[in-house]
């Protein structure tokens, strides 16, 4: 009910009704606890990834040297198979939820960095020059002009961070991270199609729920209201 009310407040009555029906379906197939474990892992990993990614993206937008250094690292992070991230995470943190969260943070970070840099670089330079002409400091220009105007692009990056985090958390269920990923893995290893299908449907529902909420937050942001 609380998640449905959140969806209602953020994205409207249709999303609220969708959340109520689909989350009830998740609970009816006894996947609620696993779904909440997965949601918790995703939110923690995504929050940490965003906190790290946005400052790096801002720094890369301001400094071409940093951008040139960061881009090949991001390319490497995005081209490595998801399972590869689990190897060093398990080596340092053993089996459990911690290596799953660490691997998820690293795996999901690149879109946040790229889209933050892109959003700031795409802002009209005349707007920045106008702020400088009125005597605004660099910090004020960043917080008052660049970040608000780049918010839709940054939120698109946050959306991608969450979606990649969700996909990685499911894979991390193979190393004891728990949640829906564990049931998906058990369904595969035991050839239990029903268990795998139930957990898979719950993953899809969580993905749609999180995606629609982040899209709605972007549409209802300050820039969108100002444009309206």
Structure, explained:
With 228 residues, the protein is an all-alpha fold. It has one domain: MetI-like (MetI-like fold), CATH 1.10.3720.10. 86% of the residues lie in helices and 0% in strands. It has eleven helices and no strands. The chain has helices at 2-11, 13-28, 32-62, 64-79, 82-93, 97-121, 125-133, 138-172, 180-189, 193-219, 222-227. Helix 3 (32-62) runs antiparallel to helix 8 (138-172), helix 4 packs across helix 6 and helix 8 runs antiparallel to helix 10 (193-219). The protein is flat. 36% of the residues are buried.
What is the secondary structure topology, with strand pairs?
Blueprint (H helix, E strand, L loop, with lengths): L1 H10 L1 H16 L3 H31 L1 H16 L2 H12 L3 H25 L3 H9 L4 H35 L7 H10 L3 H27 L2 H6 L1
Helix pairs in contact: 1-2, 2-10, 3-4, 3-6, 3-8, 3-10, 4-6, 5-6, 6-8, 7-8, 8-9, 8-10, 9-10
* Count of discrete structural domains: 1
Tell me what portion of residues adopts beta-strand conformation: under 5%
Poorly predicted residue ranges: 224-228
On the 0 to 100 scale, the average pLDDT is 83
Radius of gyration: 20 Å
Rough shape? flat
The CATH homologous superfamily corresponds to MetI-like
Q: Main β-sheet: number of strands, strand sense, barrel status?
A: none
The count of β-strands is 0
In CATH terms, what is the architecture?
Answer: Orthogonal Bundle
Instruction: Decide which structural class fits the backbone.
Output: mainly alpha
Distance between the termini: 31 Å
What's the CATH class, please? Mainly Alpha
Question: What is the count of DSSP helices, taking H or I runs of 4+ residues?
Answer: 11
CATH topology value: MetI-like fold
**What order do the helices and strands follow?**
HHHHHHHHHHH
Residues in helices, as a percent range: over 70%
């Amino acid at each position: 009910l609380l998640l449905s009310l959140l969806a209602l407040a953020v994205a409207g009555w249709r999303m609220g009704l969708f959340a109520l029906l689909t989350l009830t379906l998740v609970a009816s197939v006894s996947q609620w606890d696993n779904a909440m474990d997965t949601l918790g892992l995703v939110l923690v990993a995504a929050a940490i990834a965003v906190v790290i990614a946005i400052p790096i993206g801002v720094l890369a937008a301001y400094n071409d040297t940093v951008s040139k250094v960061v881009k090949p690292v991001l390319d490497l992070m995005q081209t490595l198979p998801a399972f590869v991230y689990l190897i060093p995470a398990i080596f340092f943190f053993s089996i459990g939820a911690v290596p799953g969260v660490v691997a998820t943070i690293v795996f999901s970070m690149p879109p946040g960095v790229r889209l933050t840099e892109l959003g700031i670089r795409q802002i009209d330079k005349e707007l920045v020059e106008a702020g400088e002409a009125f005597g605004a400091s660099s910090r004020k220009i960043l917080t008052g002009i660049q970040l608000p105007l780049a918010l839709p692009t940054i939120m698109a990056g946050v959306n991608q961070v969450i979606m990649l985090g969700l996909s990685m958390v499911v894979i991390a269920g193979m190393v004891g991270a728990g949640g829906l990923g564990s049931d998906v893995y058990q369904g595969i290893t035991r050839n239990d199609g029903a268990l795998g299908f139930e957990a898979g449907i719950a993953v899809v529902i969580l993905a749609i729920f999180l995606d629609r909420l982040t899209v709605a937050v972007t549409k209802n942001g300050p820039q969108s209201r100002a444009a309206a």
